[in-house]
Amino acid sequence: MKEAVLGKRQIFGMLRKSLEKRVIQRYEQTRNAAEIVETAVALLIRDALSVVDFSFMFPEVIREIYLTAKPDDCLRRHCVYFQNYFSGEEEWQTVIHRLFKSKEEYHEFTKETCLYRELLEKKALETAEKSDFQFDLVSIFKDTNGKRYTWTLRDTKRVSRGLEGETAEVLEILTTLTIFQASGVRRFAEYVKFKSVLSSIDAWHEADPEEQEESPALESTEDRQQTSVQTEQKELTSKSSNERINQKPLDQGTADQADKLRSLLENLPLSEGSTKAFANNPIAAKSPHIKKTAENPQESQTSNRRLDKAEEHSKQVPEKKSWEYTIKKLLGKV
Known about the structure:
This protein has helices at residues 8-13, 16-30, 33-49, 59-68, 73-78, 88-99, 103-125, 164-172, 209-214, 221-247, 252-266, 272-280, 282-286, 288-295, 304-316, 319-330; strands at residues 133-142, 148-156, 181-182, 185-186, 190-200. The chain has 334 residues and is mainly alpha-helical.
């Protein structure tokens, strides 16, 4: 079975149902009672600050831990947070007797925790005001090396004026937890400050479960940028291709006709009027041989016989009309 990851991102980011399933799976794999207890405390903090309900999470696991797991200082320190997980005073006394040697030890271990418990219960009872805005708590902590870092808790309740100190005290409870570490360095070692950030929700939509199964996942920013680049490249390629097509002088059939025309023209004489016709004709302009002949009629080595035939032909049909008719015929336009 794949290991169930349970870190800061999961504890403070996952939805309740998925998170509860993840914690139970994690405990079945590791049997680490202290880790699960501190996770439950972190969720009580999230419940006190968040607009979403995270109270009374995985009660069966908590009960099993405190009734069967080997006692240690972590279980002792945080036990009072979970007193209402047990039915009646008798069962709770059973837990105390398992964890502590005497009532004095119990009170000594839980003195600070009892104050935190009252604060968490008070903040959890506060209801979030209806608002078109979302509030995020952006806080700064120091790790055990004294290095500052920023941590953000999303979708929190609005901090009432004059009660900022209570929110700060709730955040300070994180300093009693040891499960949040990075490269062996404990996070949340010291609370520094926080600010509540306001953001506006302009629009919201959620697909039906059936649509979510059929529709692909939303693209990330990087995917959208990559798609945009690919689309732009396709458009440029298409544009370049269209330009090449537009610039292509003749298709295969027209090229064959042009070859025939070139062969015919090589054997025709050129007068001054013919030269001008060649210069203005697009097909002639595309043919280097034809262009050269048109621009340099003196270089034509035609015989007197061909000149006589050309003169006779020009008398029968006007020169310009004959030239246009020949081109149209070869191009299949007549």
